[in-house]
Amino acid sequence: MFYEKLGESKVRCELCARKCIIPEGKTGFCRVRKNIDGRLYSLIYDRINSATPNPIEKKPCYNFAPGSWTFSICTPGCNWRCKYCCNWIISQESEIEGRKMTPEEIVQLAKNSGCRGISYTFTEPTIFYELSYDTAKLAHEEGLYNTWVTNGYTNPEPIKRISRYLDAATVDFKGSGDERFMRDFSSVPSTEPIYRALREYKKRGVHLEITDLIVPRVGDSMERVKELVEWIKENLGDETPIHFLRFFPTYKVRDIPETPLKTLEEAYDIAKAAGMKYVYLGNVSERNNTYCPNCNRLLIKRRWMETIEYKIRDGRCPYCGEEINIGGERWIPPGLKQ
Ligand code: SF4
Ligand code: SF4
Fold this sequence. Notes:
Layout: E1 3-6, E2 10-13, E3 21-22, E4 33-36, E5 39-42, E6 50-55, E7 69-74, H1 88-91, H2 103-112, E8 117-120, H3 129-141, E9 145-150, H4 156-162, E10 168-174, H5 179-186, H6 192-203, E11 207-214, H7 222-235, E12 242-246, H8 261-273, E13 279-282, E14 290-291, E15 298-303, E16 306-310
Parallel strand pairs: 7-8, 8-9, 9-10, 10-11, 11-12, 12-13
Antiparallel strand pairs: 1-2, 2-3, 4-5, 6-7, 14-15, 15-16
Helix pairs in contact: 2-3, 7-8
The structure holds iron/sulfur cluster (2 copies).
């Protein structure tokens, strides 16, 4: 899906913002889409290299179907090359490995494991678009939700098509989207496509959550945090949940220490001061509850990634009646809705 023929043998992939021009016999930047005889093929349509139930909070998605479990899948490959990727073994591998699995089998496994939805995650769902699209369509027919955990580098037309079946998307910023950091640490030439993608998701009514990985020394500018928060507020709304994530040294970035809690708290305070209603910290146990933005009462209590109390009633605060941005209420486990 999503490519154009250029002359006799080349193709241009239109799936992600890289728009790779791929000669005959070669693959694009993501290594998993190949030009064979002038046609572009996905090499990973049926190559699942991770499939496991997770709490939806692990994505992280805090304001969508809290307390539910989601069947989380991925294939090899990625359209970014982050030097700090904690899933680098599967996202950066050159070999196309994985177990053959059809969309029907994935949906069945999700149902058998008691999950209420499917998340396309761990690597980058854009590059396994066709599998994600077919599985998401089937999942909807079977009453399951679908969420993407994505770097946001997808082009508008593919977003438009998948949005019919997508209930939520977590879009991951790194270093608050600082251009230099993204170029040096993620091989991303421009961040503009991410903002374009976010506007497209918003337009299509997909529930959005934003994460921002704060990396000490190289991607922890509080000025950038402020700019990002202001952009989110203006373009996506103050009800958009935002998660500031702790970085841990990994893969090629082992000489930078983990993010100090106080840096994360500083980012949290900036977002709250800007008027964002749902702000969280991630990869730490602090500041991960949901409070009513009007009366400040506790609405969702979490212990790490487990939702242990849920007070929202019909999308509203039970104490003051404030409308709460909570998506996917029909998938919240009945035991939590008391
Ligand atoms: S999906 Fe892969 S082949 Fe297509 S433009 Fe992006 S990196 Fe290139
Ligand atoms: S975008 Fe995500 S999966 Fe891809 S390399 Fe970066 S951190 Fe890893």
